[in-house]
Every structure is written in structure tokens, then in C-alpha cells.
Amino acid sequence: VLPERMFQMVSWEMLKPYLQSHVRLFEIGCAYGFFVNYVLKNGAKQACGIDVCMDAIQYARSSFGPFFGLSSDPDVSGFQFNCLVAWDVWEHLVDPIEYFSKYISRLAPGGIFAIGTIDSSSAVARIRGACWRQIHPPTHVHYPTKKGIARGMTSLGLEVLEHGHIGHYRALESYLAVFGLDKLVRGGRLAEQIRKYPILLDLKDEQVIT
What we know:
Blueprint: H1 2-15, E1 24-28, H2 34-41, E2 46-51, H3 54-64, E3 68-70, H4 74-77, E4 83-87, H5 96-104, E5 112-118, H6 123-128, H7 146-155, E6 163-165, E7 168-171, H8 172-178, H9 189-195, E8 198-201, E9 206-209
Parallel strand pairs: 1-2, 1-4, 2-3, 4-5
Antiparallel strand pairs: 5-9, 6-9, 7-8
Helix pairs in contact: 1-2
């Protein structure tokens, strides 16, 4: 839970310099609703999200409130927003430009659009080739490059404000498990806290553009 919360905090802090005073955030691919819930507690006036997974939406609604719906839900899709985000969605779409264009057209004047996705032009991706961790069809059907994403934003009529890479916080135990060392830290509450300690890993193969 803590590594996920760290990602929410970092993402929100990254967006805040570009946001208007009354943030109405719309998230595409909200999954279980953690990011929407976080921004509602940390300054957003309104926030809502959609996803294609009914189980995820049901969890979000039962845990955080009626701020979520399926992509086809007319009540949710009518939400008026000035901040549009989509974390880890682009790579799942056959034609992301066409898909996002309908949401960009509803973005309030002066609003921002931020996405996080993979970077197939990164050094890690080139070195790993077919063994790169982000290559796993059929869930990933689009493998954007950093230059390709920038061109995509331009084709959508958007100005790029910031474009970089972002790492993820993972629990220490996940790193230990890679080397078969996860059983070294055992015991009571202190050991459990050590196992769950979040550590940032940035391989420069996941990009964020606003």
C-alpha cells in the first residue's frame, strides 16, 4: 500500500504547478480508485474516474464513494473537467490518438492532459530487446517512444509542458525476492516494516508527459 501511495503523491505533486485553483480531475483507467481518492483528499475540488473493469469500479465505489463508473457510464462521462490523466493506459490502446481525442475535446480551456506510459526508445528497452519487461502481449498492444508521444500530443493540438521519466516505489521485499533473499528478513513488527520499506527504482523506461 505504501509504495502505491508514494506514486500517487509524486504524480500529484508533479501536476500541481500546472493546475488551476479549482481542480476538476478526470482519470481514464482509474482501476481501484486510489489516485482519485488521493487527489480528493489533497486539494482537488472534484474528481472522478472510469475503467473497463467492473470489479475494479465496484471496489472503488464501495471503498471511496460514487466517483467512479465504467467507460460507457453516461453519468460519469458527462463530468466537466480541467485536468485529464491516464496512467498506464496508452500502451493498451491500438489507436490512442483517436481514443483520447474525444476526451481532449471536452477538456476545459487552459486545462492539462497528463499521461504515463512505457518508453520503448529507452536504453533498457533497446538493450533487453524481446526480453524487456514491458513486452507482454496481448495486454500491451502499443509501444510508444518518447519522440512518438511528443508528436502525438502535438497532433492532438496540445503544448508539451514537461516530458520526462518516472520511477516506481516498490517494497524492499520485492527487490530481495529477485535474488532469492526475501526470507532473510523475518520476525516481528520491525522486520515487517523493513520488508515493506519503499525504495524508488527508475529504469528510465517509463515516461510521463504533461
